[in-house]
Amino acid sequence: MAAKRSEGVGRGRAQPWQRMSSTAAATPPRLAPLASLGSLVDPPLKGEGFAGRGAPLVRGQEEARTQPMTPRLELRNISKRYPGVLANDDISLAIMPGEIHAVLGENGAGKSTLMKIIYGAAQADSGEIYCDGKLIQDHNPAVSRALGVEMVYQHFALFESVTVAENIALCLRGPFDRRALSSRIVELSQRYGMPIDPARKVHELSVGERQRVEIVRCLLQNPKLLILDEPTSVLTPQAVSKLFETLRQLAAEGCSILYISHKLDEVQQLCDSATVLRNGRVTGTAKPKETTSLELARMMVGSNLPHMNVTPSNLSDGPVLEVRDLSAESRSHHGVNLRDVSFEVFGGEIVGIAGVSGNGQAELISLLSGERTHKRVEAIRIGGKDAGRLHANARRRLGMTFVPEERLGRGAVPSHTLWENALLTGNRAGLVRSGFVDRGRAVAFAKNIIERFGVKANGPEAAAQSLSGGNLQKYIVGREIVLAPKLLLVSQPTWGVDVGAAAFIRQTLVDLSRAGAAVLVVSEELDELFEICDRLLVICQGRVSPPLMRAETNREEVGLLMTRLGTATSEKSGLALQD
Amino acid sequence: MRYRIERRPEPSALMRVAAPAIATLLTIIVGSVFFAVLGYDPLATLNAFFVEPVSSLNGLSELLLKASPLILIACGLAVGFRANVWNIGAEGQLIIGAIAACGVGLFYPDPESFLLLPLMLIAGAVAGMAWAAIPAFLRARMNTNEILVTLMLTYIATLLLSWLVHGPWRDPAGFNYPQTALLPGAAMFEPFDYSYRLNSSIFITVIAVVAMWLFADRSFLGYKLSVSGAAPLAARYAGFRESSAVWTGLLAGGAAAGLAGMAELSGPLGQLSPQISPGYGFAAIIVAFVGRLNAFGIVLGGLLLSLLFLGGEAVQMSLGLPSALTRIFQGILLFFLLAADFFIFYRLRRLAEHA
Amino acid sequence: MRDVTRREFLRYSGAGGVALGVGGLPGLAAAEEKLKIGVVYVSPIAEIGWTKQHSLGVEAIKAELGDKVEITVLDNIFMPQDAERVFRELAASGNKLIFGTSFSHGTPMQKVAPRFPETAFEHCSGIVHLANLGTFEAKYYEGTFVAGAAAGHMTKTGKIGFIGGFPIPDIVGPANALLLGAQSVKPEITCNAIFLNSWFDPGKEKEAANTLVSQGCDVICSMTDTPTGVQVAGEKGAWSIGYASDMSKFGSGKHLTAFMLDWSRDYVGAAKAVAAGTWKPEVRWDGLAAGVVKMAPYNEAIPADVREKLKQLETDIGSGKVHPYTGELKDQDGNVKVAAGSVLSDPDIRGMNWFVQGMIGNLG
Q1: Is residue A126 within 8 Å of A274, Cβ to Cβ?
Q2: Which residues in chain B (271-300) have CB-CB distances under 8 A to chain C?
Q3: Chain B partners of C103 at a C-beta cutoff of 8 Å?
Q4: Looking at the whole model, is its pTM more than 0.80?
Q5: Of the candidates C350, C352, C325, C354, the residue with the CA atom closest to the CA atom of residue C136
Q6: Is residue B168 less than 8 Å (CB to CB) from chain C?
Q7: Each residue's pLDDT tens digit in chain B (355 positions)?
Q8: Which of A533, C133, C236, C358 can bridge C213 by disulfide, Cβ–Cβ 3.0-4.6 Å?
Q9: Is the CB of C364 less than 8 angstroms away from the CB of B163?
């Protein structure tokens, strides 16, 4: 183990970082490139940085691809079976040093399993993994880290109540010097263009900043291969492009990057090569920059993508939903207070609320849905009636329905059957008679949703928790739409839903609005909002922007609003995104 | 080799049926070994435990008499438990119900009146509900913990009873012993047959079971409560008020316990003394869970618990087992029963080496 | 307390008045079969205490009648609901003599006895008796009077302490007698009394004993079902008086004496009478003379002459020469309850719900 580490690493990563001095002058020469403050100004010297590591000189991605060399990581015929599922079926792929390699696939295609196997968090049933040409045996995360493989998880494992530096220190072995660590974090984060303050507590950080903490934590280990699992799902467009710069910079220094995503455009922008997975098998490899989105999508989905049909909208005379000067304190400790939120949604249109998560969306949606009431009755009007103090049920009587972000436990009771979950909001649709549940009607109601919305489920008696995320989402969306709402609130309509289902859900929302309903969509996926919305609002730090016509705006404008709205009044809590 | 307990994606339908059978089998095996080691004939002991108590009409009457308050209270409690409202103070509500009923029975001007029993019934139910309304109010308005409040109120109820029977309600002709006078005949439930103790109060329990089934499995209010219990956020999402679940859950438990207290008073007791309940209010919690919070499961659970109790006496009588040993055996059965139920929702899995 | 004469007392006791005059139950003497006897204890049998003393009574039957009897014992039957079933079950399964050993067994026995007129029921601590339900009880107050006299000789502070289970006449009376015994030595002695409202609550009893000691009591008498009072007194250096069993081994050498209970006579007598077919329901209420109440060996620390006096006192009470409740007796408020020269009637003793002058404390 120890031997492996020193041979594979040879660049000071075996050297405990804490022995490094906090001053650049005293830094051992081998570490100079990484520690140099000069890198803030200029890109680092590409080749020299690795000269001392015994790694081949790499000048960029082109060379990385053209020069024949040993792959940094090679998978041969990896298979992994879980009870009932063949999660990975005979997967092979190779990543060269300095290469950015995408693993592309829909949810459930087997990407996460594959990453766990590479990182050693799960063991393959068969197949081999080679690192720099050497077979890895007795694989586990510790071995991976010793080999210089680091992973940034989709869901961060950070302790909220302690500082960035302390979080990072937790991942290090042995004693450490807090000041040295802090200055090292500052250096590294600045060098890669993602500044973070090591003294801040994690709960104060935005999601994007938390991701940086994770990445910096990995970089401190001087990785040779960095695995990122769906890293952009929580980032603003600006943050995404910043992250890509960082990743390109890392790759240019010779670090291989394995980039897991289901977003075609990102993969095309960033990656040198891609392995596409579907149902646990490799369905193709491609050079994304030379392949069309359609071809990639076909490999991913296995069929042609459904075509969105967005017809022009026909607005109602008066607004269906009016929000006037809505201000509210957040009830959660780390939540965001809403400040003077005003907007309207008319029948026949879809209004989208864009924003990085944690900027007041949760507060806004719970106030609109009636899960939380507001003492000013006129702050929220539904169908022309003051609704601020009405509870969810009373608002539903006014014609509102709502698809929440959390499907299990909020939009549906996990342990209940689908027909029981139909009752949750469908109880007004004749499913309850004189206080008793009409089971037959409830089952028929559920069956109708299952059929009409193509929900893959074991009939109305299936427990909600037995459905896949996408299918349950279809069921909940279906339930709320079957109730023929005048106003539909939707939060993250396609989060975690596969491409086919997402397209279907989006089309359903468009159809509903074109039939005259007012639809409000809260989403973190800008693409989605641009695809279906007539108007866009941006929420940031509890403030909501004036409406933007979809046809008259663009991602850059929205992206800027996503980060800037609130910073005028609150520097501290603003996203420390420097662009 | 390492194992891990993990949640099943879906509750196992097989285990749902098999769990009680597995539990029974394990109990018989472990119990037999236990009795054999102690020098008692396992077969005879098990026979005395499970068969003897119910092999006579009197035995059956006693079984129902003992099970009736347990089932009644458990039905009421299960309504709350389904909504995650934890009323563990049914014992106190039972005592208060019995006190109120006794008050009516002792002081109603016409001790012969046919109205006496119905009035006591109402008094018992209302008093039990009133006692449960205290934690309901505190939880709904001030978000206090109903577990603590209901439990504390049990002590208060016990002390109130003690004060009454030592003081103002003490039988004037009873040589200062702490008990009330015996209630008049019109205040007592008629036994079906004077050779046995089982009386018409069993119908209260029958009605409660049917009501519980209708409420929990068929009514919309029951559905709302189950949502509140299983997923509070979903209840809020759907607009079901949390406070209504709290009130319904606690009042149902209070009413059932109050009625049970009244039925004990007007049945086997006939008077108040400092201790009137052999822990029915607490045992009913076990019954509710053994019965999986389901009306018919509760009936089976109540019968089982009561059979265990009678069986415990039977083995003392016929084989001379000390009561401590019978309690251990009762514990073994309950343990296996609840442990087997655990595997409806969870399973044991072998772990790979490095995971 | 209303004035209950002995006759009224018996009339209250239901059919007892009639039953006492009627002849015994059909005899079993001729029968070859064993006499089946059922005994119901209120708590599990412990090393010492109430149920232990009853189990000694049962042992005495076995010793006396050997294999002529078959005895079924159930312990830990406290609640009336359960007791009624158990008595019924015992009677139904052919037991011809059934003992209840707790006051709480009373109402159930009264309900069951009329249904089994062929069965003899004996109730310890009972107040009601029927055609086939007899009662037996001990004159605890005779024991506490003697123990009180011992305390009177030994106390330095002039304060003694009493811990009782419940403020019922069975306890209040003996508490009074304890003080009267002490006052027979030194009239100025007072007694602090605390009731636990439980027969078995060592925690509360410990607290009570500590309180009494801190109030200056240097003799503690505990009339509960645990040795805790005796233990705590010993630890604190106060004298102690045990109840039911000899508790000297718990008293750290400070155990003055104990008023012990011996029910053998009642158990054996009833068993023999039923076997012979001569059993009649009786109201047996005995003390030192019959040996139902016995004094445990006196502590050697008590001067020999005092010990002699105490033994003499036992004899005198047994013979009736001394009656513990001899007037003049005043209650706590100074009202005369028993005129000088007369003694308290038996029904008044059994219903005693007032403290004599010098008692400090409340009755519930």
Answers
A1: no
A2: 271, 273-278
A3: 177
A4: no
A5: C350
A6: no
A7: 567 777 776 677 788 888 888 888 998 899 899 989 988 899 999 998 899 889 888 889 999 999 999 999 999 999 999 998 999 999 999 999 999 999 999 999 998 899 999 999 999 999 999 999 999 999 998 889 999 999 999 999 999 998 999 889 988 877 777 889 999 989 999 888 877 889 999 999 999 999 999 998 899 999 999 998 888 899 999 999 888 899 999 999 999 999 999 999 999 999 998 889 988 999 999 999 888 899 999 999 999 999 988 998 888 888 888 888 888 888 888 889 888 888 888 888 776 554 3
A8: C236
A9: yes
CB contact under 8 A, C79 and B274: no
Q: Please give the Cα distance from B293 to B344 (Å, whole number).
A: 15
At residue C352, the 3 state secondary structure works out as coil
Fold for the domain defined by C140-260+325-360: Rossmann fold (3.40.50)
Cβ(A36)–Cβ(A44) below 8 Å: yes
Nearest CA in chain B to A372: B236
| Length of chain A in terms of residues written | 579
- Of B268, B316, B322, nearest to C80 by CB-CB distance is B268
How do the domains of chain C map onto residue ranges?
6-138+263-286, 140-260+325-360
Tell me the chain B residues in contact with residue C12 when contact means C-beta distances shorter than 8 Å.
Answer: 173
What is the sign of the dihedral through the CA atoms of A129, A135, A139 and A143? negative
- Domain C6-138+263-286: give its CATH superfamily: Response regulator (3.40.50.2300)
Q: Which residues of A touch B236 (CB under 8 A)?
A: 371, 392
Cβ density class A517-556: b for 16+ within 10 Å, e for less: bbbbbbbbbbebbbbbbbbbbbbbbbbbbebbebeebebe
Q: Residue A352 and residue A336: Cα distance in Å, rounded?
A: 19
Chain A residues lying within 8 Å of B241, measured CB to CB: 391
Q: Check CB contact under 8 Å for A139 and B352.
A: no
Chain B residues within 8 A of C167 when measuring between CB atoms = 166
Q: Taking CA atoms, what residue in C is nearest to B164? A: C364
**Is B228's Cβ below 8 Å from some Cβ in A?**
no
Specify the fold of A316-399+485-579. Answer: Rossmann fold (3.40.50)
Plot region of B310 (φ>0 → left; ψ -120 to 50 → alpha; else → beta): alpha
Q: Please, where in chain A does CATH 3.40.50.300 lie?
A: 316-399+485-579
Q: Which of B58, B176, B323 sits opposite C75 (nearest CB)?
A: B323
